[in-house]
Specification:
Layout: H1 5-38, E1 49-60, E2 64-68, E3 85-96, E4 100-103, H2 105-111, E5 122-128, E6 134-150, E7 154-156, E8 168-174, E9 177-182, E10 187-189, E11 198-199, E12 206-211, E13 216-220, E14 225-228, E15 235-238, E16 249-255, E17 258-263, E18 267-272, E19 275-280, E20 288-291, E21 296-299, E22 304-308, E23 315-319, E24 330-334, E25 337-342, E26 346-353, E27 356-363, H3 364-368, E28 372-377, E29 382-387, E30 392-396, E31 402-404, E32 414-419, E33 422-426, E34 431-442, E35 456-463, E36 468-470, E37 480-482, E38 489-491, E39 495-500, E40 509-514, E41 519-525, H4 530-533, E42 538-547, E43 555-561, E44 565-570, E45 579-587, H5 589-592, E46 598-604, E47 607-618, H6 628-636, E48 642-644, H7 656-659, E49 668-670, E50 678-682, E51 685-689, E52 692-694, H8 699-708, E53 713-717, H9 723-734, H10 740-747, E54 761-765, H11 775-791, E55 802-806, E56 814-815, E57 821-828, H12 837-851, E58 854-855, E59 863-870, H13 875-883, E60 890-896, H14 916-928, E61 935-942, H15 953-959, E62 960-967, E63 970-977, E64 983-988, E65 994-1002, ...
Parallel strand pairs: 1-64, 2-48, 2-60, 48-53, 53-54, 54-55, 55-57, 56-58, 57-59, 59-60
Antiparallel strand pairs: 1-61, 3-4, 3-35, 4-34, 5-6, 5-35, 6-34, 7-34, 8-9, 9-10, 10-11, 12-13, 13-14, 14-15, 16-17, 17-18, 18-19, 20-21, 21-22, 22-23, 24-25, 25-26, 26-27, 28-29, 29-30, 30-31, 32-33, 33-34, 36-39, 37-38, 38-41, 39-40, 40-47, 41-46, 42-45, 42-47, 43-44, 43-46, 49-52, 50-51, ...
């Protein structure tokens, strides 16, 4: 090698080595950067990675809607237009005659039907045939009511001559077995079964008999107590030490599985499944003893009445002079009502309500016309009394109305037993069984109509918004008449208030008539205090329409309250046509601190005025209607559907006239049964109320609200609807100018039929009144109502865009109707206090899905949640509740717009029961509506690369909810932190094949924090409690 070449070679060698080292260094740096980027050194290796896959989860996000059980009205005056509403009652028919239907008194009582003023009520009879098809058999008018009569009479045959010579004096009932005690003290079992009946084999004669849930207890004439589990074989369980007590047995009673025998010396023996315990009454003796099946009552010779719930410890609950020093007391009891009859004449009625007792007195002999020989009580509140002149009477405890049960063909010598509504009596010729029935007379002939037992009678009573009469001779200094079912009160001697069809708008107005020189007034007290109704610093307007053919000299309308002052207007120039009177005033802080405020419309002297459309509300509103904040809040939610349960179609309180008018003609509504309430402030506490409130029931205003929210109407049909109701609804939605209800829609300001303004209609059919008992009845009713729609001439206009929802609760677990979908309520509750919010809502959804009925073949699958109740307060929890995979069984979820009926809070979030929580619901609903109708994709969450960190996918999923929705060239990835701590994670959207992504981060109230393009797949994302992220992905 040449010498001069060595240096060159050496330089070359060092250069190559340096170049190699540079390359190694660059590769090492790049590797460190890459590894650091993916988190190997702890930068991100401790985080879970959220990535969306292109695989569909076989579910579509249906969006969220709003349930409106009630919609408030800005008008502070309830029943301001005096329109009527209908209260419905349903009862099972027991039989029918040519002009009447017969009902059991229990059916009438349990339905709460007001029989005192039932003439003029509507009556419908519906039936289900053997194939489960429901139909209407009769429609007519109620003309009268008789509270009790004996139905069909059947003879209990004495084929073995067991009581022919030894008459029966008393009966007891155990299961399906009827036992009888004869005059001579024999016990006869299976009285009503001629093949099985026989005499109990016992050495003793019996004095008393009774039964409980576990057996039969009988007391012998010598005081010995016998017990039987089958009603045939008796064994002795107690013998008194002093056998002379045999003539001193006082009474017997039962409760649950125990029976109690009381002796006249005050000794009380309790028998439970053959075991005995002994105690004593607080007094010195006992004159009577009885039980209603839950409580025992006893009396002594001093008139004291004692009570016990266990048959051992008795307390004194009162004294009655009517039973003092009486020894022969007849007793009867049922359902918290106890009857003690002394001297075969006067009755003391003791009513038990929890720990309170009320004493009443009835002159029974005066009501029956003869001394009473036997007495029984029915569960429906009737006293069944037998008299010494061989007659039987039914006396209503509440009204004292008396009905003779006997007739020329029915002679009752002695009533020997009452079991439910069944009556057993001795006519002298035999023992008979009959049934106590109530008779409802109907207009029209039922002959030829096959009305059978268990057909359903639906009675509708039209309730008047105002009414009352005060006589001119009333002796009170301050004469008032307050109706239980009206928000209006009548004041003044000689005052008469009725509703009249001479109305300014709608169907009814109010007529105030007065005679004499007194003040005649129609008044209404605003609910709560002044601060609950008025906002300080706000102008309010009081207005009304008035007319008269015989106007008084002076008339006034004003507001008045202690500390509030007196503000109003004199009604001058009242003429023969309606005239508007209006008065505007400002509410100060001092006025708002006042107590209750009363609205009065009055005049002095003789004459009458007609009043209609009273309004009291903020002057910024031109008329009554939906509060603006309520409408704006619902609009912000962009709901997929709005459930208009406020219309009350086919439900109690249905106001047909008001439904087809504007909101000024709305009625008040009892808000019990809804989640809305009134929360009045009372110093440092709150008072909750469920009384009638001013609501919006206008179909026109409700549909305008739905349209304003860019939503879809969801109608709710209750259990009392008829074909006429359905026809009118569809005619309003679809009818033209020439139709009656299409014309009403146009009169209300909407020319284009509503059927053309919405692309979809939901119709839910439910049983809010609990009318139908069996699953077959429920399904039959759903199909029946569905057929009403399909038979209507206007249904073709909406046929292709209508979905029927079955809102029934099926005990058998299967939806049996032909509806398209099923709907139900879901409550997301904390099942486990140690679990996370997400774990709890997942459990709640799993339970709800288990309770949801199985949809039979032919119907569409999918559940509509009509009301979602969740304890989630922030947006992170709320969005978790609707996107969690456990909610996928629901096609749509509705939030509940529960209202706090305090008008002074109608301008802010406190008007909702949920307050800020409901506002957050609307915020979430508005944000997530963008991916309604999108397909859900599977989410893949990877474990952290660093296996040593205490973070796992399972822990992450217990605190964070994720979902992805895709349609066309768009996809949305949602990540929500519902936990109470900060959450960190990575997002990778590469699997979707994106071209661009935008990530938006929202705080716990749904406010946008920041928005930026997602330039890297492995950036750390941090969410504080309640926050959530939505990644909008543009797909290639």
């Amino acid at each position: 090698m040449k010498k001069h070449g060595r240096p060159i070679f050496g330089i070359t060698k060092r250069t190559r080595f340096a170049a190699a080292m540079v390359v190694v260094a660059v590769v090492l740096v790049l590797a460190i950067v890459v590894l650091g980027y993916v988190g190997v050194f702890g930068l991100r290796s401790e985080l879970c990675e959220v990535s969306a896959t292109p695989d569909k989860a076989d579910d579509t996000y249906g969006g969220t809607g709003i349930n409106c059980d009630v919609i408030p009205n800005i008008n502070l005056v309830r029943d301001a237009s005096f329109e009527s509403s209908t209260q419905y009652s349903s009862m099972l028919v027991a039989g029918a005659s040519e002009n009447s239907v017969f009902l059991t008194p229990d059916a009438v009582a349990s339905a709460g039907y007001d029989t005192t003023n039932c003439a003029g009520d509507t009556a419908r009879i519906i039936s289900i045939d053997s194939e489960g098809v429901m139909s209407e058999k009769f429609t007519g008018i109620v003309t009268g009511y008789k509270p009790a009569k004996l139905g069909a009479v059947s003879l209990i045959k004495d084929e073995k001559s067991l009581w022919d010579e030894d008459r029966i004096k008393e009966m007891a009932f155990y299961g399906n077995t009827a036992l009888a005690l004869t005059d001579s003290g024999r016990l006869i079992y299976d009285l009503t079964n001629s093949q099985l009946t026989g005499v109990v084999n016992a050495k003793d004669r019996f004095a008393l008999i009774d039964s409980n849930d576990s057996g039969v207890v009988a007391v012998a004439t010598d005081g010995t107590i016998y017990y039987s589990q089958d009603g045939k074989n008796f064994s002795s369980v107690y013998e008194p030490e002093n056998l002379t007590l045999g003539q001193k047995v006082c009474g017997i009673g039962s409760s649950g599985q125990i029976s109690v025998v009381c002796y006249k010396d005050g000794t009380v023996v309790t028998v439970a499944a053959g075991n005995i315990a002994q105690s004593n009454l607080p007094g010195y003796d006992a004159t009577s003893f009885v039980s209603d099946g839950k409580r025992f009552l006893a009396t002594d010779s001093r008139g004291n009445v004692y009570s016990s719930t266990n048959g051992m410890v008795f307390e004194n609950i009162g004294v009655s002079e009517m039973i003092k020093d009486k020894t022969n007391i007849l007793t009867a009891a049922t359902s918290g009502v106890f009857c003690f009859v002394s001297d075969n004449s006067n009755a003391v009625i003791v009513k038990s309500e929890d720990k309170d007792f009320r004493f009443e007195e009835i002159e029974l002999a005066k009501a029956t016309g003869s001394p009473v020989s036997s007495v029984y009580l029915t569960n429906s509140g009737l006293i069944i009394a037998g008299t010494t002149d061989d007659k039987a009477y039914a006396i209503n405890i509440k009204t004292a109305r008396t009905v003779n049960l006997t007739s020329e063909n029915v002679v009752v010598e002695n009533i020997i037993g009452v079991n439910g509504d069944k009556v057993y009596y001795d006519s002298g010729k035999g023992i008979y069984k009959s049934q106590i029935l109530s008779e409802l007379s109907l207009e029209g002939n039922l002959e030829g109509i096959d009305i059978i037992a268990d057909d359903i009678l639906v009675a509708g009573h039209l309730g008047r918004a105002a009414g009352g009469v005060i006589s001119s001779s009333d002796s009170r200094d301050y004469a008032w008449s307050v109706s239980d079912d009206s928000t209006w009160a009548v004041y003044g001697k000689g005052t008469n208030v009725i509703t009249t069809d001479r109305a300014y708008s709608g169907k009814y107005g109010a007529r105030i008539t007065g005679s004499g020189s007194d003040v005649h007034a129609l008044t209404q007290t605003l609910p709560g205090k002044a601060k609950d109704n008025f906002m300080p610093g706000t102008f309010y307007r009081l207005s009304l329409y008035v007319m008269s053919d015989k106007a008084p000299e002076k008339a006034f309308c004003w507001l008045e309250g202690e500390g509030f002052g007196k503000y109003g207007i004199e009604l001058t120039g009242v003429g023969k046509n309606y005239k508007l009177y209006s008065y505007v005033f400002a509410v100060t802080d001092q006025m708002a601190d006042a107590e209750e405020v009363r609205l009065s419309i009055a005049f002095e002297g003789t004459g009458f005025i007609l009043v209609d459309d009273v309004f009291l509300g903020p002057d910024s509103y031109s008329t009554a209607g939906v509060p603006q904040y309520y409408a704006d809040t619902l609009k912000s939610g962009k709901p997929a559907a709005m459930r208009l349960n406020n219309l009350n179609i086919g439900c109690n309180g249905f106001a047909e006239t008001s439904m087809y008018l504007s909101s000024i003609d709305s009625v008040s509504r009892d808000i019990s049964g809804t989640s809305s309430r009134t929360e009045y402030s009372n110093e440092n506490s709150s008072i909750f109320d469920k009384q009638n409130q001013s609501v919006t029931v206008s179909l026109e205003d409700s549909l305008r609200l739905v349209k304003q929210c860019s939503s879809t109407p969801w109608f709710v049909i209750g259990p009392y609807v008829n074909q006429d109701d359905i026809d009118k609804l569809l005619e309003y939605l679809c009818g033209s100018l020439t139709s009656e209800y299409g014309g009403r829609r146009i009169d209300n300001g909407t020319a284009l039929p509503w059927s053309r303004q919405f692309s979809r209609f939901y119709i839910e059919i439910n049983d809010s009144g609990k009318v139908f008992k069996s699953d077959i009845q429920k399904a039959s009713y759903v199909n029946y109502v569905k057929s009403m729609f399909t038979q209507s001439e206007y249904f073709s206009d909406i046929k292709d865009k209508t979905f029927f929802l079955d809102g029934m609760e099926y005990s058998g677990g299967t939806m049996m109707s032909d509806a398209d979908y099923h709907t139900m309520d879901v409550s997301l509750i904390a099942n486990d206090t140690s679990a996370t919010y997400i774990d709890n809502i997942r459990t709640s959804y799993i339970l709800a899905q288990y309770e949801a009925p199985h949809v039979i073949s032919g119907a569409k699958s999918g559940e509509y949640i009509k009301t979602l109740k969740t304890s989630g307060t922030n947006c992170g929890k709320i969005i978790s509740a609707i996107i969690t995979s456990e909610a996928d069984f629901a096609d749509m979820i509705l939030f509940d717009a529960s209202v706090n009926f305090v008008p002074s809070k109608y301008a802010g979030s406190e008007m909702f029961i949920g307050k800020e929580e409901f506002v957050n619901m609307m915020t979430v609903s508005g944000i997530t509506t963008v991916f309604a109708g999108f397909d859900e994709l599977y989410i893949d969450i990877k474990e952290p690369l660093d296996t040593s960190v205490p973070v796992s996918v399972e822990q992450f999923m217990s605190n964070v909810t994720t979902a992805c929705f895709s349609k066309g060239n768009k996809a949305y990835i949602v990540v929500a932190n519902s936990s109470s701590v900060q959450q960190s994670f990575l997002i990778n959207d590469n699997k979707l094949g994106r071209s661009d992504s935008v990530i938006r981060r929202y705080d716990d109230k749904g406010r946008l924090i920041n928005e930026k393009k997602m330039r890297s797949d492995h950036l750390r994302h941090i969410l504080q409690p309640g926050e959530f992220i939505i990644v909008e992905v543009d797909l290639k």
